[in-house]
Amino acid sequence: MSQGVEVAGLYVRDQDEALEFYVDKLGFRVHTDARNGDYRWLTVQHPDQPSFQLGLFTPQAPLVDAATAQGLREAVAKGAMPPLVLVVDDCRAAYDELRARGVDFTQEPIDRYGNVDASFRDPSGNGWKMLQARRS
Amino acid sequence: MKRDAKRAEQVLRRLLRSKDRMDAASHEEWPVRRLARVSGVSEAHFARSFKDAFGVPPHRYLLTRRIERAKALLRDTDLSITEIAFQTGWGSLGTFGRTFRDVTGESPSELRRRQKAAQHALERVPHCFVSAAHRPDLKTAVSEKRRRDSGAIDTPEETEVP
Question: In CATH, what is the architecture of B60-149?
């Protein structure tokens, strides 16, 4: 595939903390970690998904003004950012494994019509739904 | 970044834990003391901080979650209305029915009839998001709404339900 979405980004409060979470806890890999002064372009990748990068960015000047940056940081901390969905083969097994690594789950696995889903948040407040889809 | 801003952000993140805990177990009792402990905020400041952060007082938020859950159970299950009332955290069927009508404008059985008749094409959207989108948008306390509907003109202090 040569066309499609390559990077979609999240706002995080601290890129070091986010890197540790997405890599050491969730098992993503670093794709790009490039700095230019205060700016850091940081993306990670799911090991099974080489064509997509998840960006871990901080809202910061001069990309946005200081007041806007603060508003965005607060929105993240309040869990107001859009939904994220991580698909797994076995939700209960992944839940046990990630929880043992210290992932902060906000909802235990629940069966819903053949799907199983659980919820967790990253340290910044971004909410993930972890979904095991019904085999069709 | 300024230290105050950083601190405000950390408090918000901790307040989110209370909201998450209510989301995960809206059928449980959530007195302010319990919520304040989850968020590491003083009891005296909790309700105000929560409202500033999320736009509604904590117990009104809990109420919207209970109604949301009750609506989902009415729509998706054949559980009796009594069973749904108890499963979603109400102590009595009467309070459940009254609050439900005050918030949604119809009784639980009316909603169930209407929902069952309608066909929904929402199967492709993850269930939790569909459910959240149907959460009642409660801008006033239920007691206030009741009072306005009954045409009363006095406006005593707002009381939180439940």
Answer: Orthogonal Bundle (1.10)
